[in-house]
Amino acid sequence: MELLVSRQYTVIEVSKLPYPAGLGKLEYRRLEHRMRKLLGAEFGDPAANERMFWTPQYQHVIATYLEPEFAGVDIVSVARAAAEAAQASDVYGQVISHEKAYERYSANLPPRGQYNTQQAANWTLSPPRLEYDGPNLIIGDGRHRLSLLRSIVEPQQPDFPVLVQLFHD
Fold this sequence. Notes:
Number of domains: 1
Order of helices and strands: EHHHHEHHEEHE
Number of strands: 5
Strand order of the largest sheet: 2-1-5-3-4
Shape: globular
Number of helices: 7
Radius of gyration: 16 Å
Structural class: alpha+beta
């Protein structure tokens, strides 16, 4: 049985996003191997990822394994376009019940053909998912996108708005 939760399609400043609980998965085996080597037993700990994120070693792993996955995609422009497009939804920023939440959110979004890129449409229609684990906000989906975006944009613009879907209990 699925736990009923509410969603909120909103923006969060890039500097206020949670850090990942590890990077890598089936499609990113080499990335996961390098991250496990770098973080050891703390691989899945968001606090350890936060402590190490801005080190040259961590940034090198992001540049080596994530940047090529997004080659040809201006992730900053994609994230900016998605945040702007999401504001067209009549439920943008509101906490809405789980039932038909996506349908209510997407009802007033621009048609796919009006986005500047397919990636912007995809981000708008399927933003990274953040959820609460007790009092802590964690990344439920989208940790690779968010980590690459953070790495590129946060040093120059920590208040950069990032569209997310925030799950509430």
